Amino acid sequence: MNLAWLAAGIAVGFGMLGPGIGVGLATAKSSEAIGRNPDAAATIRTNLIIGAALAEGLGILSFVLGILLWTKA
Amino acid sequence: MRRLLIGLIALDVIVIALGNVLGGPTRWPDIEVPVIGSLFASLSGEPLVHIAGEAAQPTGGIGISNEISISNSLFTMWLVMGFLIGISFVATRNLRLLPGRLQNVVELVVQGLSDFVQSTGGPQALRYFPLFGTLFLFILMSNWLSVVPFVSQIPLLHAPTADYHTNFALALVGWFAYQSEGVRRLGGKYFSKFFNFSGFKEGAFIGGIFVFVGLIELFSELFRMLTLTLRLWGNVLGGEIMLGVMAAVLWYVAAPLALPFVGLEVFIGLIQALIFSLLVLMYFILAIESHEEEHDVALAHADQSHAEMTREVATV
Q1: Nearest to B239 by CA among B141, B134, B161, B138
Q2: Chain B interface includes A39 (CB < 8 A)
Q3: Averaged in consecutive runs of 10 residues, what is the pLDDT profile of chain B (316 residues)?
Q4: With contacts defined as CB-CB under 8 Å, which chain A residues touch B237?
Q5: Using the beta-carbon criterion (under 8 Å), do B238 and A63 form an inter-chain contact?
């Protein structure tokens, strides 16, 4: 049992918290916007996907950090 | 639906019976990190043909070595390139006015991508459509290849985008392309975004803030390379690891239940290919816009939409 694995788990877990909240907020707001203005659904969806991917990218950084800790342990 | 469920359960029972017959009695598979690590998650490709330099550390991880070799991800990349080049060659060999089946499909894809670019960045963004489309198709094919059985599991095949070298090369191409496009369009004014001393006219404090903001811009520009690389790599590699873990966990329980994760991975591959190419396109659009010409551009846009409206009215 290696402490670095614990560190990797903690890093990934806490790192995914923020992006999770962010993606949830973005999805909620975009659903609201589509409900208000269904004609603009295509544009809103594109923006949502970009924003969600940008937020998720930060979480992926923590995932990569976890991978590094995992393999270098 | 019921038939599908019954089929899945029957498949499950058969798999469990086969596992018991062939691989000893049923037990909960103990997931050992090194085993899964060596099976599914070789972080970068492994060299097949060694050309020069010293070999990288066998332990893996992100690192830089002076090794030059033909790795298995490079080999798989050649397969993807051969597939795409072959399709485009065969589809455009004898173009007809009434398209055949293959030409129809290719036209549909290209037209859809071109419409998407136009709806994102306007007609001026069509200049960057070739790079956008190439990146999209290449990354899409590579991502979907990571779901195919045996890819990333036997030594000869490794999904290209699950190797961070490929992603970094793609990100470098996009980064230098949009930087040089920005310089070409705006000249020296392009760098005024990063080193902005115009604020000193209104006092030292405002000037300092402008310089600071410029530095932040510069760093975010550099970080774009890193995030483009790691977003794609992390998603594809994470998907592969997830599929491996799901297959290991569900092997004796319900192997067919791992199928939805394959579907999820196909979807994520599509989204990530779109994200990568769309972000490069966005960076292009951001790089060529200047703050002084904003007024003129808005005016030109208004003129254009006015002209379109008149044309529509005329056709009606």
Answers
A1: B161
A2: no
A3: 82 73 56 44 69 61 70 89 92 82 90 90 88 94 86 78 88 93 88 82 85 88 87 87 76 70 89 90 86 52 54 48
A4: 67
A5: yes
Model confidence, pTM: 0.77
Q: How many CB atoms lie within 10 A of CB B191?
A: 14
The structure tokens listed for B83 are 């597939």
ipTM: 0.76
A49-61 pLDDT tens trace:
778 877 887 888 8
Interface check B254 vs A, CB under 8 A: no
- Judged on CB neighbours under 10 Å (0-12, 13-18, 19+), B106 is middle
Helices (H) and strands (E) in chain A, counts: 2, 0
Angstrom distances, CA of residue B155 to CA of B39, B44, B47, B234: 10, 12, 9, 21
